[in-house]
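Quick one: structure for this chain?
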Amino acid sequence: MEVIPAARTRNIRYAIRDLVVLAEQLTGDVLWFNIGDPGVYDFPVPAHLVEAVHQAMLAGKNGYAPSLGVKEARDAVRADALRRGFKAVRNVVMSNGASEAIEFALTALVNPGENVLVPCPGYPLYAAVLEKLGCETAPYFLDERNGWQPDLADMERRVNPKTRAVVLINPNNPTGSVCSKKTLKAALDIARRHHLVVLADEIYDRMLYSGEKHVPLASLAEDVPIASFCGLSKNYLAPGWRVGWLILSGAGTAAYDDAVCKLARARLSANYPMQFAVKPALEGPQGHIAETARKLEERARYLERRCKEIPGLSLTPPKAAFYAFPSVQVADDEAFVKELLMKEKALVVHGSGFGQKPGSQHVRIVYLAPIPQLEQLFERMERLLGSTARK
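Got it. Here's what it folds into:
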């Protein structure tokens, strides 16, 4: 008997991981620039966080955690949010990475046939979860000519009677852009006018350089319902620990909060011992953040220079996180990425996997690797672009 999968899985795509299936079929070494995992490179987890988890395990914290999270961790997240200006914080729920927090927020909010405004380009998890829920993704464009700021007019045009929420990814994955305070306030005004929940994905909120400052969305309004996502994976360099959190703030969230908590209880708990790293992360030494930013900025500036030097590439420089989203002059970015993998054994992700304006072609490059490895990538991209141009 052939088992027929559920129809809801038919259109689920996750470009970042889907290409790995193809890469794993190749023999020989592949240069990997597709997944944002700091631990693979020269970004170790801060030692005081490792020690905190070690002590928690020795103390027997190896069973189920409280469903909403360890009190010490939740209190630390709340205190940190208040220090950064969050208004009207209602609840904190610990999750298995920020991705589970995103699933909670969407599952508790959106009914089949309803839609959510999602940035384009943007992190593909939102579209995947909405597809699974039988809901629709309503993409709004980011403006490449304006530093990848959200196109606010386009955002508002996409709202219809079935729109429940708007997602803001700030800093943005895949572009590395940072929203201005003016942009954030204008987006909140749109949410206010149309009675939308705002989902604020701020997982890279401390991973900034070029003099950039991050403004937490929840610091700008207390009358708009906001679900903010963050965690240890990026700022604290521990993606494999799967520790994230959801902060609910603003007005009118009581029933929504209850629905989120139901979902948290239904899956028992988030990772128990790793939650004991949250308080020392948020309240302990922060020296690794400046060192991480220094290395990333150096690598980002290298990418910027190489994109100027290579015909067929152009880049709006990233200002945060560790992603670059250069425009590439090819007919089909997915075909280009696959050819780069098969011919040059270098893996980046096609821009169409994150969404992009029709007619444009991009690739996303993760630049966590040291510059010598990035040099190899650009040599291979330059060689392939040269051969493509000669065809």
